[in-house]
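wait is this the right file?? whatever heres the structure
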């Protein structure tokens, strides 16, 4: 009887220890949640002091003391940061004291203007496959200056034969000269960012798939023609439920009053041509980061890791060989191991776009698809094929991002240290640095890249929670073994007494 009371007391004490509210095991699912990191619950840990040593990486900057200095963040800073909200940066003087700083996008406010104009054109289909451009003598013009017909026009040209479109560019070129916005802003020739011809095709013919190469010739008087630009491709296709329409031609700046387009591989009938010019007062400071992808086992999806949180504007793909795929684009801010530990292998991904990626080659011309416009700072990306056809080879991902500019007051003595890579957030200064005059450039003189084993690396909340769960299950398992042993010992003792 005394043995039984002892065993019951021991079991009760063990269960109370395991289930006590203050026990570290009972509260292990609270996890680790540094302030602002979106932890899984529980009390937030106390952040370390704001010192250079509490960051994983650093850059040493030099400049004029007492002034406001500016510095464009390089790629290494984005890779070394531990947060995706750009709040793990700080600037210290030579004595280790933080100085006021702010962070801004380099995009800035810009003024832009789109100039569009319908371009008149006249088609000409020669009887012969090898045909020269129409000369002045071949063109019949009415009293108003419009083209009535072009001699040598073929009624039913061979499918492989060329098709000429003669364009009158004068009205569009005049609209491009000294353009002004609605608010009176004037744009100079140097502000011209893009200059294209956009073609529309007759819809009454139905959808026609084609790949057509186009060359250009220009003339000031319809008498002398010269070739301009390089061969370009127009593409129209349907694949995987998505429509691919590459319907624009880059227009060289030196185009004259008349333009002649020669099509090889006749497209559908052109119904309209529009000239479009875009003027912008700023030059985007976009950067590129190219990363390789890894194929899934079935080859129908490709995973990418940008290596850091970049302020993205677009994502494109470099196809290693001619190919066309209907795809969906996804992104996530959770690494694969964190998604697996959180049992969210796919839930962590969000769809960012859909469309056809391609690389086409014809007559020495290679064209690729336009990038997907995206935003945010997600680090992990997935490209998935819509149909059952696998990727022949993983395309490279080309990430376009807009760098941030650091502006800080060079207080104290230099050089100054830009520290980065910390799980706890750092608040930027509210000091209006613009009141201190125009910023002067800061120069990087040394760098210490972030390393995972440095003090700035803080425990991963999901990793710590998984570790605590393993400890809890391990202790519970030991408790079960212990209780089973006691039960066996009691059984043997009772049996011995009965014998």
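ok assuming it is, sequence goes like this
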């Amino acid at each position: 009887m005394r043995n039984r009371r002892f065993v019951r007391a021991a079991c009760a004490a063990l269960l109370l220890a395991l289930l006590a509210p203050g026990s570290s095991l009972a509260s292990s699912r609270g996890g680790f949640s540094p302030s602002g990191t979106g932890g899984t619950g529980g009390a937030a840990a106390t952040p370390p002091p704001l010192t250079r040593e509490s960051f994983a990486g650093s850059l040493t900057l030099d400049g004029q003391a007492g002034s406001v200095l500016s510095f464009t963040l390089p790629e290494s800073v984005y890779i070394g940061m531990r947060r995706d909200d750009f709040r793990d940066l700080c600037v210290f003087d030579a004595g280790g004291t933080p100085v006021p700083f702010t962070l801004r996008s380099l995009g800035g406010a810009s003024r832009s203007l789109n100039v569009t104009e319908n371009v008149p054109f006249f088609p000409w289909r020669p009887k012969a496959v090898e045909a020269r451009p129409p000369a002045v003598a071949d063109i019949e013009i009415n009293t108003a200056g419009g083209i009535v017909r072009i001699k040598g026009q073929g009624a039913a040209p061979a499918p492989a034969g060329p098709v000429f479109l003669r364009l009158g560019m004068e009205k569009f070129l005049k609209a491009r000269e000294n353009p002004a916005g609605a608010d009176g802003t004037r744009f100079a020739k140097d502000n011209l960012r893009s200059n294209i011809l956009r073609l529309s095709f007759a819809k009454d013919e139905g959808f026609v798939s084609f790949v057509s190469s186009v060359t250009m010739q220009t003339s000031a008087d319809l008498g002398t023609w010269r070739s301009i630009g390089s061969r370009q491709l127009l593409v129209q296709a349907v694949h995987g439920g998505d429509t691919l329409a590459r319907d624009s031609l880059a227009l060289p700046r030196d185009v004259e009053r008349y333009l002649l387009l020669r099509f090889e591989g006749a497209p559908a009938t052109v119904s309209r041509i529009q000239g479009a010019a875009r003027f912008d007062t700023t030059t985007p400071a976009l950067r590129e980061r190219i990363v390789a992808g890894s194929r899934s086992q079935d080859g129908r999806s490709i995973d990418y890791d940008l290596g850091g949180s970049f302020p993205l504007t677009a994502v494109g793909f470099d196809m290693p060989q001619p190919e066309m795929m209907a795809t969906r684009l996804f992104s996530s801010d959770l690494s694969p191991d964190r998604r697996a530990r959180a049992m969210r292998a796919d839930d962590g991904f969000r769809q960012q776009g859909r469309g056809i990626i391609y690389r086409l080659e014809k007559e020495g011309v290679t064209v690729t698809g336009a990038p997907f416009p995206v935003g945010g700072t997600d680090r992990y990306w997935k490209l998935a094929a819509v149909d059952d056809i696998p990727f022949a080879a993983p395309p490279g991902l080309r990430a376009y991002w807009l760098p941030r500019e650091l502006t800080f007051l060079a207080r104290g003595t230099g050089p100054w240290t830009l520290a980065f890579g910390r799980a706890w957030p750092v608040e930027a200064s509210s000091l209006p640095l613009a009141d201190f005059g125009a910023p002067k450039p800061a120069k990087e003189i040394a760098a210490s890249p972030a390393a995972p084993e440095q003090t700035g690396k803080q425990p991963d909340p999901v990793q710590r929670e998984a570790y605590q769960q393993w400890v809890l299950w391990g202790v519970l398992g030991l408790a079960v073994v212990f209780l089973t042993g006691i039960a066996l010992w009691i059984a043997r003792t009772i049996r011995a007494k009965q014998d």
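The helical segments are 2-19, 75-80, 170-176, 336-341, 461-498. so i think its the right one actually
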